[in-house]
Amino acid sequence: MTCKPHAKLIGLALLFVNGCPVSLAELQTxxxxxxxxxxxxxxxxxxxxxxxxxxxxxxxxxxxxxGDHSRVYLxxxxxxxxxxxxxxxxxxxxxxxxxxxxxxxxVLRYSQSDNxxxxxxxxxxxxxxxxxxxxxxxxxxxxxxxxxxxxVTFRHTVESPKGAYDSAIYSPAGLSNSKVVGNVFEDxxxxxxxxxxxxxxxxxxxxxxxxxxxxIFLTFSPGNEWAGHDIQILRNSGSHLGRMAIExxxxxxxxxxxxxxxxxxxxxxxxxxxxNGFGISMMTGQRAIVSDNTMIGRAEGLTFGIEMGAPGSVxxxxxxxxxxxxxxxxxxxxTRLRENQLVRQDQAGIQITNAPGTKSGLxxxxxxxxxxxxxxxxTNSEGWGESQVLNNKITRTAGAFGDDDxxxxxxxxxxxxxxxxxxxxxxxxxxxxxxxxxxxxxxLKINGRPGANNGSxxxxxxxxxxxxxxxxxxxxxxxxxxxxxxxxxxxxxxxxSAAMQGPASRGVxxxxxxxxxxxxxxxxxx
Length: 526
Hints:
Blueprint: E1 14-17, E2 20-23, H1 24-29, E3 31-33, E4 42-46, H2 48-56, E5 62-65, E6 72-75, E7 79-81, E8 85-88, E9 92-95, E10 106-109, E11 116-119, E12 122-124, E13 132-136, E14 144-145, E15 147-150, E16 153-155, E17 169-171, E18 175-181, E19 184-188, E20 192-195, E21 197-203, E22 206-210, E23 216-220, E24 231-234, E25 237-241, E26 244-250, E27 260-262, E28 265-267, E29 278-283, E30 289-291, E31 294-296, E32 304-308, E33 314-316, E34 319-321, E35 325-329, E36 336-338, E37 341-343, E38 348-352, E39 363-365, E40 368-370, E41 375-379, E42 388-390, E43 393-398, E44 408-414, E45 422-424, E46 427-432, E47 440-446, E48 457-459, E49 462-466, E50 473-477, E51 487-489, E52 492-494, E53 498-501, E54 509-511, E55 514-516
Parallel strand pairs: 3-5, 4-6, 5-8, 6-9, 7-10, 8-11, 9-12, 10-13, 11-15, 12-16, 13-17, 14-18, 15-18, 16-19, 17-20, 18-21, 19-22, 20-23, 21-24, 22-25, 23-26, 24-27, 25-28, 26-29, 27-30, 28-31, 29-32, 30-33, 31-34, 32-35, 33-36, 34-37, 35-38, 36-39, 37-40, 38-41, 39-42, 40-43, 41-44, 42-45, ...
Antiparallel strand pairs: 1-2
């Protein structure tokens, strides 16, 4: 960039804009009000042409003010913003109902989106199209740089007016060194959609009534190896969502590294979100951090509270309530699921699914799971070898679900692993407040063909039934030989119909197990 020379520097107060010296007097001349170009802001006049004139006349480093909240600018045309300008004020810009369907309210063109601040405005799309599109109308891998969107209210956007991922904020070609902070999204088809982010902060935004798409969606396309680093999604909140709260996704493996999703809180999905209602989906990259989030579903038919597919991730201190699965791990070797609170999931608190991908070396520890429908922890894959399930507390009350009659609950149900695993120190407590005909309970269910669990260790677990009489099974074996070569040591079984039940196995190591108030020890091993 070539800087304008100053004839006299002595006595001038100098600031720097985009690396060039600017006098205070000159900077003041760069502050302009849109009314200077004929915009009225009376909520009646079509101000589109006047607003565009004001935008087009702004010099690099300028600030264009739209004035205070009393001003309402109507436009029937799309506004094309210029780079290197700050757009400020608390006024409203509203798309007129006669505008062409799908028209985005404001755009920043590809390679002409850098160094832009949009602050304090209300952008009301009027149910016509999208809100703000950044780095569009071009092709290539150049990201927009230094974009700040702060304190803006987005209203009445339409889902996908121009493409699959159009949103209130839409950036399809990369966004770097940028911030989307403190904004409000009300009655929008979808919220934030950004491709190939890098050095991006999305924080303290509030979403109310996102009726179709995601609140926050980040995606990555092949060939953008620079993207995916230093991404933080922090303290966002919302309610009445139509799909996912936060989704980080890609079709192919990416270089996304240590994406942090922390302190976000979402609740109350829309009734029509059935099958698509997720809390957090982290399905790309590696070593993600998903912590201290609260996801409360409550609507019927929601899917995953937290969905993970990033190896080496940490998922900890989250509260998840009212989904089908609290935490679903599809892939992600070496992931740690720690100290999460999982309340009233329809099917399982934690599920290791049979989706493609490795799941070895997992650590599932110190989670509190209460009133999951059918499983506390469920491994539905053989790929979880060399994993540890430690010190989790699982409680279930019969009658907690309307369909409990004739149903069943298993505290920890395991598939035969490819390598030995350790299940230790877990507490599983079943209680009954009312009769539930046909209901069955097992603390630990070990599945597998003969010898499949050889070398695995189940130790120091506690399985207790507090149902007024012996009820349920401590360890349930599904087939002959399921426990071949298995070690069962230091476990405690109390108040059960049988401590162990199932076909015979050989070579089981039984050491120091305690059986209290059980109708039968039921140790069917030979």
